[in-house]
Amino acid sequence: MSRNITILGSTGSIGRQTLEVMEALGMGAAALTAHSSVERMEEQARRFRPELAVLADERAAADLRVRLADTNVRVLSGQEGLLEAAALPEADTVVAAMVGMAGLRPTLAAIREGKRIALANKETLVCAGPLVLEEARDYGARILPVDSEHCALFQCLEGNRDRGEVKRLILTCSGGPFYGKKRQELQGMTREDALQHPNWSMGAKITVDSATLMNKGLEVMEAMHLYQMPVEKISVVIHRESIIHSLVEYCDNAMLAQLGTPDMRLPIQYALTWPRRVAGGPGTPLDLWHCGPLTFGEPDLDTFRCLALALEAARIGGTAGAILNGANEAAVGLFLEGKIGFLDIADKVALAMEQVAPVQDPALGDILEADRAAREAVLASR
Ligand code: NAD
Ligand code: MG
Predict the structure, then answer these.
(1) Are 378 and 331 in contact (CB under 8 A)?
(2) Ligand 1: nearest atom to the Cα of 55
């Protein structure tokens, strides 16, 4: 299948798996971007020969330029470079796989060029869902979810003609590495403990979010925006095996589920090939005879307070998502640096939500300000 793809965040977990899918399906790379991983970017640029390679970090980009001097790959740096890559005319598809709110502006730049957006960067929708979707409508950019739960919902909704027939979206949640533990047991959990995810191998930030269950809260907001559903119609079910990726319950009580191995290359591929299904991708098939029993349970919102806080932010609306997300990014950063404890993450997010007042119907400036103020509240509270 012929596609020309730009990846924002090509050196990360989603970025590298996207390149595996592209290689298997014979798709080309238009631009590759990352923060500062020079060696990995050099290797990717030599292998995929994009028109453009961008490193946000200036010094890393200068090093990359020297390393790639014998090729005709153009090297750019900084925010400007990211925006140019996102809007590059040669690309028909942009994979938004940067981590965090930093992905918002480049994603908007790609949307404004009417690209197909394969969206992994959920923070973008959590902070600026209505704005991103409105621009996508205005510029004719199709947004296809890469997040496995949202790709599952997308597939379970494909035959649905009337959104009024949908009773509930049900997001599955593995429970993360600390499933079954109570608050006092989480007290001393370290960076290393939190980075051990039972089913998925992902970047550090999302792995910590999966341990606090903030990831599932962000995903509830992502689903709200993508599928235009109120938070009351979205549920979370603990499903330890990560085989069912999410479900849709209809008004006649029929439930549709999407199943597959826990392998991100499957939803990445569907976002790239939709509306077609294509054989020959690198994703692993599911063996039902040997995948074992599937279990379901209720999330523990008292222990995993981040999920409760995210549901509250979803109910408040406006900039509450940007406040929650900005505070969480700052708090997870501090936790990864060993400066705060695991339970402090939820405390810091709650504090920012108390201190920063949400604004309804925000413009981009309000969202950026909410993000800044929330981060400041977290950093000032140390
Ligand atoms: P990662 O940390 O492995 O990779 C992030 C990529 O973004 C890297 O290439 C990095 O260089 C780049 N990047 C980070 N900050 C940047 C900045 N300021 N400027 C420019 N580039 C920057 O993260 P990941 O696990 O691949 O996750 C990426 C996104 O996908 C996140 O939003 C995450 O929530 C979402 N997601 C990931 C998974 C997964 O399995 N990893 C699943 C679902 C959704
Ligand atoms: Mg997910």
Answers:
(1) yes
(2) 20
